[in-house]
Every structure is written in C-alpha cells, then in structure tokens.
Amino acid sequence: MNRPLRHIAVFCGILTFALLLRATWVQFAQNDNLANHEKNRRVQIEAFSHPRGDIIVGGKSITGSKKTSGTDFAYKRTFKEGPMYAPVTGYFSQAQGGTFLEGVHNGILSGNDDRLFIKRTLDMLTGKKQQGGDVVTTIDPKAQKAAYRGLVELNAKGAVVALDPRTGKVLALASTPSYDPSVFAGISREEGRAFERLRKREDKPLSNRALREIYPPGSTFKILTAAAALEHGVVTDIDKPTGARTPYKLPLSSTRIGNDVPDSNCDKVSVKTGMQWSCNNVFLDIALKVGKDKMRETAEKFGFNEEQFIPVRAAASSYPERLDKPQTALTGMGQGSLTSTPLQMAMVTAGLANDGKVMKPYLVEELRGPDLTTIEKAEPHQLNQAVSEDTAQKVQEMMENTVENGTANKARISGVTVGGKTGTAQHGADVTDERPYAWFVSYAKTPGDDAGESPVAVAVFVDPSNMDIPRSEIAGGKLGAPIAKAVMEAVLER
After folding, report:
1. How far, CA to CA in Å, does 88 sit from each of 91, 141, 313, 358?
2. Cis ω on the peptide bond leading into residue 87 (within 30° of 0)?
C-alpha cells in the first residue's frame, strides 16, 4: 500500500474510532440526560400519557386531568378555582412546562419520582397504567378565599401571605391579578395565544407577587426597627420619651421628614407612642442609633438577604450592606434601598408573634404515593431565635396598642387580642408622581385556654396604581387591614 493510501486508511480508522467513542458516550454517559430532556418528544408524550396526581387543599383536590383528542398528548391538566390557587399550584402546560408546586414536585405528581420506583415497576409488570402521587398543602381554604377575595374586591395589584407562627405553615398565599392555568394547559394555537396575552400584560398576572416581587416595606418595617433597638439596648423602656424631634432632619442632609399625623402626636414621644401613630421621626432616630450593622444583623435573623424555599423559591429581601447615615436612618421607616417580599414581612410578624422564634415557612404538609401512603411528611423547623422573648413581647405590646388605640384599629376582632402595624411605602425617583404602596401586617392570639399563642400572622401588600381612588385613601390601615382581619377571622374560626 502506498503512503497516501496508508494515510487515508489511518485517518478513516481514527474517524471510525471517534464515532464509536461518541456513540458509546451518548448511549451510556448521556443516556439519562437525553432520555429525560424536556425537549425530547417521547418524554413529553410520556408525561401526558396518563393522569397526574393532585394538589390537595383542605382535604380536596384543586387539580385534575382531562382526556384529550387529536394530539399525541393523551391528558392535559385542569385546575379548580384556578385564579385563586395559581400562586400555589403554578401551571402545568403541554407547551409551557410547569411552575411552582406543579414544577417543583413534578416527579411525585407524574409518578416518576425515584421513591415511587417499586410502585412503578409493579404497575408495569401487572399492566397497570402509571399513576402519580399527591401533594398535600398547608393552605387553609377559608383563609385563602378571604385573602383572594379581599384583593379582588379592591381591584388591586397585590399579595397576601398568612403563616402559622408556631410552625411556619403557609395558610394563605394570594396574588392579584391572577390567571387560570387551565386556559393554556394544552398545546393548541389558541392556548398558546392565551399564554402570550397573559405574558405581555402590563399588570403581570403570571407574576407571583407574594414570593417573587420585592418592594419597600414602608412603616411595617418599624416593628423590626423596634425589635433591633430593644435587642441592642438602644431602647430600654418603650414608654420613655425618645427625644426625637419632628420634622426629623436626616443626618448630613437638609432633608426634613414629617409625619401623617400632627406634630404634637410624635414630637419627642416614646417608642410605644411612636408605633401607635407611626411616627417617622422616632424610628429614623433609633435606626441611626442602632447602626447599619446591627440593623442588618437583626434583619438577617428574620430572613433578609437570603432566598427562601417553601419549597417554591422566594426572592431574597434585601437589607443592604453599604449604607451611609441618612440611608441607615431611612431603613428605620422601611424606605431607602430596603426591599422585602410579602412573605418576608409575614415571617417578621410571625417571628415576633412567636416570642422571637422564626420558623421556616413551608407550603407542603405531605407527599403521598398513588396508594395514599406517606412518602414524605413535613416537620416544623426553627430558622432562628431572631430576638429574645422579652424583646418580642415588648414589640407585641406596642403592636397590640397600635390596634387598640392607633392607626391599625381596623384590624380589631371582638374578643381577640390582635397586634398590627400599618405601612405606606413611597417608590420611584420622584415620589410626588407615584401612588404609594399600602402594607399591613398583623397577628391574632388564640382566646380561651390557649390564650397567648398566635395561630396566624398576616402580611398584606397592595399596589393601588390601577385603583380609582384618591391618593389620600391609600393607606395600609384602610386598604390592607380589612383583608388581614378577614384572613385572621377565617383561621380563628377553624
């Protein structure tokens, strides 16, 4: 064989060897990835070849599966009271994939989870169709309904989160405007167009405002400012005058910040009175005295600066590291560069109501197999002792006084001890041109034999940018408190 032919033979041999190596790599090393790739048509056909398991609220399924025709996909997902529960379930679509619980627990719902391997194998041997398991949520259906209905009646963009402070269970998780996941659960062109219409809407119905959006928390953050001041010894007596003048002059600045109530209500008053009337001067002053590092340390103990997984991911709320003195003071009233999700403010409120113990929030009570056997059961988990019991109880005293005698009076429930705090948060570069956000946080204590325990803490957020009301009516006490009250009553009735 002459030299050119030898070269060609060697080259062809190398190519053949490379092809064999590649084929081996694809068939063995990449087998699982390719077999389960989301764009593998066979994987998609298999995913919709049988009914899914269900998501359960209050012992009843809020999802289902519907037989389809004219497509390779035999079943598509259905949702009961879809808009109300969309922030919990997310969507599961033949074209768009899955989100929230539908996405996070797709393995259980589809029956493909490794923990269902034995069941799946037995079904295959007996010729039985594959079955999915169920996801049992912690949601209280009456509390969820009260939260969603309250936001819908306002015709507002907003969110509500309710937690059980003792365990961290998520009792309500609402976001508006919402959407019906059933509308685009299939793969038809019309369903694709329906999804695109939702995706392009300016009011962002697909966005989960309770978990994924961050906002300045406004005066609701004053409960954390008070806790930080007590915990670090800046305030030792909640009834002692602070000496903080109003209007308050920010350090290193000519800016003066006033209050929504007369100066006589706030000038030099105690922290308790400052909470009662939401006096900005008091909380600007004590945040400055606590300092940015200790303020941030306290905020982080309540969960700030970390994403939360419930198991759906929630965005991290932010207490920034680099702040000058004016910015530090502004965080005391929940403004400046401070941001929070509604979930985070519910965690702060729940932690204070639970004597300083912050419990990890969780949305799933139990994962069940198709035969209803328990695969996984949630257990309460303490994240932090954010502040001492004494500090938490002093903040409770102030919040309860604010409901009885101050700006949070619309959250009163007859025969029940309620603590609350209003909030109005400015946003935008020119706040005079922006309609402020309205916030309200509260908790209720169980009356009777278990008096002192708090079975519910609520955070309500309202963005009134699309509401037809005068600016003077935009306040947490007016917009958020009635919703919080309804949610608390729903839980207490249970």
Report:
1. 9, 12, 12, 22
2. no
CA–CA dist 296, 304 (Å, integer): 8
Catalytic residue among 178, 182, 219, 317: 219
- Strand 364-368 relative to strand 374-377, pairing: antiparallel
pLDDT, the chain, mean: 91
Give, in order, the Cα–Cα distances in Å from 294 to each of 125, 308, 422, 445.
62, 22, 24, 30
For residues 107 and 105, give the distance between their C-alpha atoms in angstroms, rounded to a whole number: 5
CATH topology of domain 218-363+380-493: Beta-lactamase (3.40.710)
Residues, the chain: 494
- For the question of residue 219 being annotated catalytic, the response is yes
Domain boundaries, the chain: 218-363+380-493
Q: Is the backbone peptide bond immediately before 177 cis, with ω within 30 degrees of 0?
A: yes
Q: What is the largest CA-CA distance in the chain?
A: 107
Please count the CA atoms within 13 angstroms of the CA of 211 that sit on its side-chain side: 25
Q: How many CA atoms lie within 13 A of 396 on its CB side?
A: 23
* Category of 298 on φ-ψ map: left (φ > 0), alpha (ψ -120 to 50) or beta: alpha
Flag whether the pTM goes above 0.70.
Answer: yes
| Helix, strand or coil, per DSSP, at residue 98 | strand
Tally of CB atoms within 10 A around 246 = 25
Helix runs in 25-66, H state only: 31-35, 41-47
Q: What is the pLDDT of residues 70-92, one digit of tens each?
A: 788 889 999 999 999 999 999 99
CA–CA dist 389, 391 (Å, integer): 5
Distance of CA 370 to the CA centre of its chain: 29
> What digits encode the pLDDT tens for the residues 336-381?
999 999 999 999 999 999 999 999 999 999 999 999 899 999 999 9
Structure tokens at 268: 């030099």
Of 337, 264, 328, which is closest to residue 305 (Cα–Cα)? 337
Instruction: State the CB neighbour count (10 A cutoff) for residue 492.
Output: 17
Distance (Å, whole) CA 40 – CA 37? 5
Helix residue ranges, H only, 302-377: 325-331, 342-353
Q: Which two tokens stand for residue 368?
A: 């069940």
Evaluate whether 171 touches 163 at the Cβ level (below 8 Å): yes
- The one-character DSSP state at 360 is P
